[in-house]
C-alpha cells in the first residue's frame, strides 16, 4: 500500500459482513450451542418412532407403543432448545429439563433416538446449565495502581473491612468475663 491509498480504513461493510457481525453478537449473548444441540436432539427422538425404513420390498416400521410419548419428548426438547436461544434467563431450568427429558427418552423412544438424540440433548442441557453470560469490558472494576518498588507504603491504612472488625475485637478482649476460666466462673456466680 502506498501512503495515498485509503487501505482498509475506508472499507464499507457489505450486507453479509453486517449480518454476520449481528448474528455473532446475538450468538454470544445466549447459550447458542446448547440450544442448537438440544433442538437437534429432539428431532431423532420425535422422528424415529414414526419412521419407515424400506429395504428392497421389505418395509420395516420402527414404531413403538410409546410413539406419542416420543413425539411429546421430542417436541419439548425442540421447544427447550428455542427457549435457550430466545429466553437465556431461564437457561438453567431449560438445561435441567433437557437433561431429564433426554434420560426419559432412553426407555420411551428407541433408546433415545438410537442414542443420537439422547446424547445431543444431554450435552445441550449440560451446556445450558454451565453457560454464564459474559461481563462487558466496560463494566469491569478498575484496579488500584500498585505502589512502585521502593515506595513508602503506610501500614496503618487498613481496608474498610479490617477497620470494622478491629474495634469489635478490642471490645471483646476488654469485656467482663474475658480472662481465665476462674474469673469467668466467678462472674457468672455473682449474676
Describe this structure in words.
This protein is mainly alpha-helical. It has a domain at 21-130. It has helices spanning 15-28, 32-47, 67-86, 91-108, 110-114, 116-130, 160-173, 181-190, and strands spanning 52-55, 58-61. A hairpin with a 2-residue loop joins β1 (52-55) and β2 (58-61). The longest helix is centred in the middle third of the chain and has 20 residues, at 67-86. The termini are far apart. The model is unreliable at 162-167 (pLDDT under 50).
In short:
It is built from eight helices and two strands, in the order ααββαααααα. It has 191 residues and is mostly helical.
Strand tally is: 2
Sheet with the most strands: spatial strand order: 1-2
Low-pLDDT parts are 162-167
User: pLDDT average, as an integer?
Assistant: 77
In DSSP terms, counting alpha (H) and pi (I) runs of 4 or more, how many helices? 8
The proportion of residues in beta strands is under 5%
- What percentage of residues falls in helices of 4 or more residues? 55-70%
Gross morphology: elongated
Notable features of this structure?
2 strands; about 190 residues; about 60% helix; single chain
Please give the structural blueprint.
Layout: H1 15-28, H2 32-47, E1 52-55, E2 58-61, H3 67-86, H4 91-108, H5 110-114, H6 116-130, H7 160-173, H8 181-190
Antiparallel strand pairs: 1-2
Amino acid at each position: 500500500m502506498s501512503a495515498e491509498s485509503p487501505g482498509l480504513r475506508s472499507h464499507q461493510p457489505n450486507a453479509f459482513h453486517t449480518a454476520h457481525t449481528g448474528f455473532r453478537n446475538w450468538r454470544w449473548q445466549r447459550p447458542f450451542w446448547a440450544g442448537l444441540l438440544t433442538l437437534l436432539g429432539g428431532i431423532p427422538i420425535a422422528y424415529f418412532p414414526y419412521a419407515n425404513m424400506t429395504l428392497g420390498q421389505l418395509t420395516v416400521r420402527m414404531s413403538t407403543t410409546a410413539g406419542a410419548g416420543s413425539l411429546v419428548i421430542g417436541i419439548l426438547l425442540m421447544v427447550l432448545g428455542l427457549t435457550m436461544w430466545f429466553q437465556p434467563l431461564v437457561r438453567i431450568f431449560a438445561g435441567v429439563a433437557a437433561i431429564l427429558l433426554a434420560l426419559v427418552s432412553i426407555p420411551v423412544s428407541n433408546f433415545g433416538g438410537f442414542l443420537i438424540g439422547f446424547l445431543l440433548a444431554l450435552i445441550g442441557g449440560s451446556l445450558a446449565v454451565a453457560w454464564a453470560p459474559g461481563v462487558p469490558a466496560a463494566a469491569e472494576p478498575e484496579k488500584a495502581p500498585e505502589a512502585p518498588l521502593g515506595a513508602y507504603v503506610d501500614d496503618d491504612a487498613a481496608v474498610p473491612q479490617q477497620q470494622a472488625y478491629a474495634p469489635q475485637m478490642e471490645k471483646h478482649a476488654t469485656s467482663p468475663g474475658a480472662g481465665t476460666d476462674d474469673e469467668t466462673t466467678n462472674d457468672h456466680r455473682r449474676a
